[in-house]
Amino acid sequence: MTAKPALSFEHVSHAYERVRAVEDVSFAIGAGEVLCLVGPSGCGKSTLLRLAAGLETLQHGHLHIAGELAACGGGGANVPPELRGIGMVFQDFALFPHLSVAANVAFGLHALAPSARRARALETLAKFHVDDLADAYPHMLSGGQQQRVALARALAPKPRVMLLDEPFSGLDSRLKDHIRDETLHVLKESGAATLLVTHDPEEAMFMADRIALMRDGHLEQIGRPVELYFHPASSFAASFFSDVNRLTGTVTGGRVTTVFGALDAGQLPNGTPVEILIRPEALHLAWAPDTKPDRPSARVTAARLLGRSTLLHLNMEGEEGRALHLHSRVPKHVAFAEGDTVEVSLDISQAFVFPASTP
Length: 359
Ligand SMILES: Nc1ncnc2c1ncn2[C@@H]1O[C@H](COP(=O)(O)OP(=O)(O)OP(=O)(O)O)[C@@H](O)[C@H]1O
Ligand SMILES: [Mg+2]
Hints:
- By secondary structure, the protein is α+β, with helices and mostly antiparallel strands.
- It has 8 helices and 20 strands.
- The longest helix is centred in the middle third of the chain and has 18 residues, at 173-190.
- It has helices spanning 45-53, 101-106, 114-127, 143-155, 173-190, 201-207, 225-230, 235-240; strands at residues 7-16, 19-29, 34-38, 60-65, 68-72, 86-89, 161-165, 193-197, 210-215, 218-223, 245-252, 255-258, 261-264, 273-278, 283-287, 297-305, 309-317, 323-331, 341-346, 351-355.
- It is globular and about 80 Å long.
- The strands form 4 sheets. It has a 6-stranded mixed β-sheet, sandwiched between helices.
- A hairpin with a 2-residue loop joins strand 4 and strand 5 (68-72).
- The model has no long low-confidence stretch (mean pLDDT 92).
- Helix 3 (114-127) crosses helix 4 (143-155) and helix 4 packs parallel to helix 5.
- It folds into 2 domains: 7-237, Rossmann fold; 242-355, CATH 2.40.50.140.
- Residues 45-46, 197 line the site of magnesium ion.
- The site of adenosine-5'-triphosphate (ATP) has 12 residues, from strand 2 and helix 1.
């Protein structure tokens, strides 16, 4: 990241009357970086984006764009949206219905001579392979085409910062994959800093250089996708990015005993009730027609091919004879079937121990 971030939030808080939507959030995005803001519905993602855009007046904290103060809480500076050097795309695309595609994209190009506007509009539309639609009107376009035009309109003025709020959520899944991929390449080539809001963890991992995970208005964890996935800061963060198996236990001497052996419990004191979160891909399976008493084994209750992986449902006996139902995800197709007995081993790098959230 450069010394001067393209966009920074410093101790930003925001309330709508009595609803506290954002609580003391600080983070920065570097030029050319794609940062995905993720979290459950209502956690404050769109509010942060709208504050960056200047569509909401900042109440507390500071906001800098390219090192310059764009907004300051408590009635301080407040640069209007059109002077912030930002491009925006929303879920509903919000194209101007009475303007052609080319005129939509040329709309924000005041800085260019009129003769140069159409050329820039066509050039930007071409990046999304929709320059042939320049003279069409928005109602004549499919959802995917409207999406590309909306992205082109936001990028045409060469903004320093792109703000995208759930830009792919209106598209069906195969088209979404394609447009995401195309968008990532165009954004990276543009050098703009991108703040992309999504509630889809897979989309965030696909698009992001870094992910900021929000929960109830605050920042739960920020980092590269690999950091959030392999080193989640909380059970919330661990379970946001995949289905997880949950075991329970109690800390004894810095460790917690499980059916898969003792796991490190870090600095947690003796007697702390904990939950152990295990990603499905961390449970490795092997054929075990003859169960060995010293090895954890399970009975397969269902096996489902999901395309790139197979999901196995397992029943096994846990600590103190408790019945466990676990999911194991195995790459490719495996031939385990209902009723098979399998030996189960745990990749401890994907088992996370946290204090139990409810006693
Ligand atoms: N204009 C508004 N007036 C009152 N409350 C609002 C307004 N906009 C948002 N809120 C509330 O602020 C909180 C945060 O909303 P926000 O739109 O930022 O969430 P979000 O993370 O974008 O959610 P979603 O994923 O559903 O889009 C929510 O509790 C929401 O109900
Ligand atoms: Mg939102």
